[in-house]
Design goal:
By secondary structure, the protein is an alpha/beta fold. The chain has one domain: Uracil-DNA glycosylase-like domain (Uracil-DNA Glycosylase, subunit E), CATH 3.40.470. Helices cover 41% and strands 17% of the residues. The chain is built from eight helices and seven strands; from the N terminus they run H-E-H-E-H-H-H-E-H-E-H-E-E-E-H. It has a seven-stranded mixed beta sheet. A hairpin with a 6-residue loop joins strand 5 and strand 6. Helix 1 packs antiparallel against helix 6 and helix 4 runs parallel beside helix 8. This is Uracil-DNA glycosylase.
Length: 223
């Protein structure tokens, strides 16, 4: 299971490498609620790029920590969408997600892990080159964090697969629809998908994620 030491290591590495944005708010992440997480038959890790830091919204007693924020409240489109996706994966995607209560979706979200590949916060629009640089420079630590979280399924919210190649040295198989990619890393199912703040319709994203999860259960082409 993960420890707090990893965040000190990230900060030291950012400083040692002189990475851009290292002076920005550092935001912790990881398993939201370890008790709930360990109770799940599917241990889900969502991976995104960076935190869009907005001081007026950050968020719970000034703790710059996704674990504290998500445990306390689920709001903004980003968190609500992740709650829908988490509930879908954990409950085999019930047809009408709108019939699921806010509290049940919040419980589902508290039952997963969430990390950003860049812990130094950014803005609403991520710089692709900078995100890639952070992944390459801190890949060993990111992999350590992922291994400590010990997920059975990883949902990367990168949309395109370049970051997957940087992080895992692995090529995924892209669906014919171009809606998602799937693969495995160290025996863990990996899905690369849209970001939860995508402007695609809620139902479209939910249905495509259902198909992506289903696709991970099929044999992948041998290359």
């Amino acid at each position: 299971m993960e420890t707090e030491l990893i965040f000190t290591q990230f900060q030291s590495l950012y400083s040692e490498k002189g990475l851009p944005d290292l002076g920005n708010q550092f935001v912790k992440d990881g398993i939201i609620d370890p008790v709930l997480y360990c109770q799940q038959s599917k241990r889900i890790l969502f991976i995104a790029k960076e935190h869009n830091y907005r001081e007026q919204h950050d968020y719970v007693n000034n703790h710059a920590d996704y674990r504290e924020w998500i445990k306390s409240v689920m709001y903004l489109g980003f968190a609500n969408r992740l709650g829908e996706w988490a509930y879908g994966i954990l409950n085999d995607f019930p047809e009408d997600i709108d019939q699921v209560s806010h509290d049940d979706k919040h419980t589902a979200l508290k039952s997963v892990a969430f990390i950003n590949v860049k812990k130094a916060s950014g803005t609403a629009t991520a710089n692709p080159h900078l995100i890639g640089k952070y992944i390459l420079e801190s890949r060993d630590l990111l992999r350590q964090q992922i291994e400590a979280i010990a997920p059975t399924v990883i949902v990367c919210c990168f949309r395109y697969d370049d970051y997957i190649n940087h992080l895992f040295d692995h090529n995924l198989v892209r669906a014919e629809s171009n809606a998602y990619s799937v693969g495995k890393w160290n025996g863990i199912d990996i899905i690369n998908f849209w970001h939860p703040s995508s402007r695609k319709s809620k139902q479209f994203l939910y249905d495509q994620l259902r198909l992506a999860v289903k696709a991970t259960r099929k044999p992948l082409p041998v290359k």
